[in-house]
Amino acid sequence: MIKKYILICLCLLYIVGCEKHETTKFKLSKENCDNNWAICMILPDKKIEITKTQPVKIAVLDSGIEQNIPQIKKHIKNTYNAIDRTSETKPFFPHGTMIASILTNTQIKNTKIGITENINLYDVQVLDEHGKAILLIL
After folding, report:
1. What number of other Cβ atoms are within 10 A of residue 127's Cβ?
2. In angstroms, rounded to a whole number, what is the distance separating the alpha carbons of residues 109 and 64?
3. Angle between helices 95-103 and 2-16 (to 10 degrees)
4. Residue range 59-87, pLDDT digits in tens
5. What are phi and psi of 83, to 5 degrees?
6. CA 67, CA 97: separation in Å to the nearest integer?
7. 123 in helix, strand or coil?
8. CA distances from 53 to 18, 104, 137 (A)
9. Contact present, 126 and 83 (Cβ < 8 Å)
């Protein structure tokens, strides 16, 4: 399931870059892959092309995103709790936060995790404390 989310996000990032923009290209080294194996798994040719565009807008529909991580928080533009229909999300599980850290260019210790700094996140909590969603809400 996570691979589908990552693939969708990468496709969206690629599609947004269809106009002429400043582009930076680089190839990941073995050390990069040792430090961040997830990126190397989804980019088997180890090549990254970064295009400067308007920020990509992505809604993370999950268990909520932890708001106390500054590297992620700066990208969150709005929150919505579909369970109680408020703007306050309460992440019960770390999954939404992990997805957000993959999308944003977060650094943990000496390891960069993530795809881009050029992103606006919308935190939409659709899973309750049991990890369940009510389909009528969605």
Report:
1. 20
2. 23
3. 30
4. 999 999 998 888 889 999 999 999 889 99
5. -75, -50
6. 9
7. strand
8. 10, 15, 33
9. yes
In the numeric block, which tokens belong to residue 71? 């590297």
Residue in 119, 129, 134 with CA at minimum distance from that of residue 59: 119
Q: What is the per-residue DSSP string for 13-30?
A: HHHHTTS---EEEEE--H
Q: Of 2-6, 54-58, 76-80, which has the strongest mean pLDDT?
A: 76-80
Q: What's the one-letter identity of residue 54?
A: Q
Among 93, 90, 113, CA closest to 6 = 113
pLDDT at 96: 92
Residue with tokens 């050390």: 31
Contact 72, 105 (CB under 8 A): no
Spatial contact of 84 and 128, defined as CB atoms under 8 Å apart:
no
Number of other residues whose CB lies within 10 A of the CB of residue 87: 9
pTM: 0.63
